[in-house]
Amino acid sequence: MTLYIDPPVWPGHGRLWSHLVSDVSYEELHAFAARIGVPARAFERDHYDLPSHRYGDAVRAGAVEVGSKELVRRLTGAGLRRPKGRSAGAPPSGESSGGSD
Q: What global pTM score does this model have?
């Protein structure tokens, strides 16, 4: 299981955000997010939005720190990238994202 997280540099809702992705499957991503207590509503198309104060939690749980370009490269290379307007990979609960992008 390898999950990837980029630095919390994305502004939104008065916070800075990171993106958490899997290069294996959405199931792996959802399981990891649930394990560290990330709500399903934080899922956005192909990644989870994590506020900066949760970055360390993801890294301590095993997420690999990579730059944003590398994160997108791995997501795209795995065939898991979903541009805006596509809903594939919705979280198990079907909730929509409340994070930033």
A: 0.79
